[in-house]
Backbone:
């Protein structure tokens, strides 16, 4: 059976789409926002990843005859709806922040404007891409920050939740600053640099450790990273690595070599190994470590003075083990009536689940002197702000908390990606996205990068949007009371 990703749709989207199609709402233009509610690991920021995957999906949406036969055999869908899917093509508009952007909870990261049938059928794929790739990018950024400029290798393919997760996970991690991946296919697909040397099986296969190291150094003299913990790290692994490096590599003028430790007390072993290497005159020999690492363990190792140069991070990155759910949602926020945008709201007993209505813009405010991001402002789509005038924002929950900016710059974070179903912008290269992410992280205050109790970054609503939301809440509550 041929796999068609267009069929990666929660079934209720088909039932709703069929119902819409066979109702007066068939051509109703609606607005859906993509956003998330909380930051993973109680961090200070998140990174948006996956836009390229979403764009490619939308541009290639189509239903095969096998797909249509499957749906028809469910005996739930009208013949007209099946025929509509046979010729399906996205015709709407999409607005999005750039891939690699820093994002915060409850911001409209992406807005889909389309007829209700089209908008509904995009939901599952957009969410799964957004939730997974943004989660991995955010985790990778934390890990890279913990490494304090040292090289970080993503090595999690064998522990990933499936083939796609391994591949796009490598890409997302690279966007966030990870230096390379163990996943060769990710290099072939996306250009994420692939790297790797040997496993314990290499050492085990040879009659002794010295022969294993010597043969590897002979085959790969300019990329010799010797795995020293197969038998005994300090009593045999490191001494044998020193022997081979001094006898086989140094005489050739080679200075690029390393040892890798994959088990044990990494702080103690790396300190002892560094001492042994330096005493042997191999001060340029790098120390690579791996073994269930994450940002907290890396921070602890470096805080303890572990002389580690390169970190290999696997399962805890590619699965975001400590907080594996990003929590992105896709909600209806407005409809069009006679060319007018009519805001819509979802009410909940849980205040965190009350949506912010309307077709919206997302602005980022920067300090003009430092270039650092100060706050984000969500406004109604037709609001414009001038840097020539003071700008006062207020906390949507605690409205008495205000801040006025006078020396600032303001940037519209979203751009239109699709217009009338056609992509109207060129997608950036992976290296361009990676560079943009690095620049964006550099514009955050150091206090926001802390792992514990990071500085809260404010995302405020314009007065017009806040008033609209408040009035809709009152209207919906009054309507509910009248219906009792």
Residues:
């Amino acid at each position: 059976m041929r796999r068609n990703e267009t069929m990666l749709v929660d079934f209720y989207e088909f039932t709703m789409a069929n119902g819409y199609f066979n109702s007066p709402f068939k051509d109703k233009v609606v607005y859906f926002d993509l956003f998330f509610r909380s930051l993973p690991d109680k961090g200070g920021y998140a990174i948006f990843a996956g836009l390229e995957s979403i764009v490619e999906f939308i541009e290639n949406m189509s239903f095969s005859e096998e797909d249509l036969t499957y749906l028809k055999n469910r005996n739930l869908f009208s013949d007209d709806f099946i025929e509509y899917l046979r010729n399906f093509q996205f015709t709407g508009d999409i607005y999005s922040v750039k891939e690699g952007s820093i994002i915060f909870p409850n911001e409209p990261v992406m807005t889909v404007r389309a007829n209700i049938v089209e908008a509904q059928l995009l939901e599952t794929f957009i969410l799964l891409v957004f939730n997974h790739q943004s989660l991995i990018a955010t985790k990778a950024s934390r890990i890279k920050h913990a490494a304090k400029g040292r090289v970080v290798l993503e090595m999690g393919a064998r522990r990933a939740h499936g083939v796609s997760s391994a591949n796009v996970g490598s890409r997302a991690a690279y966007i966030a600053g990870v230096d390379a991946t163990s996943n060769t296919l990710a290099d072939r697909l996306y250009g994420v640099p692939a790297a790797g040397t040997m496993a314990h099986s290499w050492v085990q296969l040879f009659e002794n450790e010295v022969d294993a190291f010597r043969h590897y150094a002979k085959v790969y003299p300019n990329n010799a990273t010797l795995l020293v913990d197969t038998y005994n790290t300090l009593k045999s692994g490191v001494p044998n690595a020193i022997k081979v490096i001094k006898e086989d590599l140094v005489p050739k003028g080679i200075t690029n070599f390393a040892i890798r430790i994959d088990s044990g007390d990494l702080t103690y072993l790396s300190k002892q190994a560094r001492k042994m290497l330096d005493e042997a005159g191999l001060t340029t020999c790098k120390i690579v470590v791996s073994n269930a690492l994450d940002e907290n363990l890396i921070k602890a190792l470096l805080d303890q003075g572990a002389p580690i140069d390169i970190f290999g991070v696997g399962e805890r990155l590619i699965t975001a083990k400590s907080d594996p759910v990003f929590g992105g949602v896709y909600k209806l926020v407005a409809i069009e009536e006679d060319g007018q945008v009519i805001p819509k709201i979802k009410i909940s007993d849980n205040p965190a689940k009350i949506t912010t209505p309307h077709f919206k813009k997302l602005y980022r405010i920067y300090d003009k002197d430092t270039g650092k991001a100060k706050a984000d402002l969500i406004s109604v789509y037709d609001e414009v702000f001038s840097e020539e005038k003071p700008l006062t924002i207020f906390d949507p929950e605690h409205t008495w908390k205000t801040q006025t900016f006078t020396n600032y710059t303001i940037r519209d974070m979203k751009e239109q990606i699709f217009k009338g179903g056609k992509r109207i912008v060129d997608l950036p290269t992976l290296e361009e996205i990676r560079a943009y992410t690095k620049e964006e992280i550099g514009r955050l205050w150091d206090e926001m990068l802390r792992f514990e109790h990071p500085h809260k970054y404010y995302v405020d609503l314009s007065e017009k949007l806040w008033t609209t939301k408040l009035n809709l809440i009152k209207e919906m509550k009054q309507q509910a009371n009248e219906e009792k």
Q: What stands out?
A: Residues 123-146 form the longest helix (24 residues). The mean pLDDT is 96. Residues 174 and 228 are 27 Å apart (CA to CA).
